[in-house]
Amino acid sequence: MKRPFALSVVVPVFNGAASIAELVGALRALEIPGGLEIVLVNDGSADDSIAVCRELAVGPGAPVTLVDLSRNFGEHNAVMAGLAHARGDYTITMDDDLQNPPEEVRRLYEYTREGGYDVVYTHYAAKQHAAWRNIGSRFTNWCADRLIDKPRGLYLSSFRCMSAFLRERLVAYDGPYPYVDGLIFQITANVGRLEVRHLPRSEGRSNYTMRRLLRLWLSMFLNFSVLPLRFASISGIVLSGVGMLGFVAILIEALINYDLPTGWASLMSSIVLLAGVQLLILGMMGEYLGRMFLTANRKPQYLVRRVYVREDGALRAYEPAPGSAAAGRPHAVEDRGHVSPLEQLPAVPGVSARRRDLPDRAAE
Hints:
The chain is α/β, with parallel strands linked by helices. It has helices spanning about 20-30, 50-60, 75-85, 105-115, 130-145, 165-170, 180-185, 210-225, 225-255, 265-295, 340-345, and strands at about 5-15, 35-40, 65-70, 90-95, 120-125, 160-165, 190-195, 305-310, 315-320, 355-360. The chain has 2 domains: about 5-210 and about 305-364, Spore Coat Polysaccharide Biosynthesis Protein SpsA, Chain A, CATH 3.90.550; about 225-295. Helix 1 (about 20-30) links the parallel strand 1 (about 5-15) and strand 2. Helix 5 (about 130-145) runs parallel beside helix 8 and helix 9 packs antiparallel against helix 10. The longest helix is centred in the last third of the chain and has 33 residues, at about 265-295.
């Protein structure tokens, strides 16, 4: 199937008003044979990112599709929303903080295409992150080596390039807790790696807090493996064996030493240890059940408020049809040959109900 662009660049935007204009300008300056499109996903930003992105969407150069989510859903959910609107033969995902140089985009795209890979991950000679972020990344990658079908030693970077084959199968997943890398390795083993530069953050500080990183780690830890449940089972077996050995030792000592005093301290220590392990196992099982409950009750992966595109020199806003099944998961726009991508956008299921014409902000 012929697609309207050779490359789509998906950028989740969260409080990125200070850097996103520079990033889009640098991407528009790239020369990509076959054309380039940019998909910005506003993930419930608290600053004026949506206003800045709307200005960029109506500006000249490579077309920008702006997907405005109804609230903050998280980076991986926002990436899934962007992938659902991408239309290129290849798609690159990258952050909005300019730590990945835009000039590396073309090299990553060409490396993926020429190598025939389904996905290529980037890695860095030196990461320009805080020390605690680097330690957290190493721990996450260590866990990923054991929990998902990731090649050993492969660094999981958000700056990656994937084929349309992979992208179209990724967006079929509609669970509320997507972990993009886990989904990728369920689909393909045709994976490459490329070293690129990593720059210091240009503005502000990282939006990833310890809480967000823990939530992301749990998505990988619980959604793509039953190893935690096996760990709980093994812990129960080991502790049962230790308890039995302790019982035998105490019984033998009681038979030998008739004056043995009652061991209050050892009793309390045993109760605390066993209670803690039981609560850990129950909490782990409860987390699994809770995620199954939310998935069964159709908790949305994301909800699109509006999709903004440039058409006839003005900015148009398309709203999902209220109550439609596609409102939470708009489908990617397909190229139908004689119909331009912007003209066919209203025909996309779930995005067609209403259209608002907005003023040409570039002319204001």
